[in-house]
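So, could you explain this one?
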Amino acid sequence: MPDVEVRVRTTTAPRSFRADWAGGPTRIVVGFDAVGESKARVSVLHEKLTGAEQAAELKAYWRERLAALKALLESNGDNR
């Protein structure tokens, strides 16, 4: 994520990791699951949010970032 600093706390490679988010009190938990031969599912849990407003902002942020990741992975390798 180019616009946010994260500090990985724990990892269970290649399945998941936990990280502190942007030096603040929130954390992320990211999981990866294989779906067939050439696909994977990524799940993101963002913990310790301050309220509904922050949750809505981060939901939009993650939707955008995951869409960008999907586009990158589905490209012909032009951006790799």
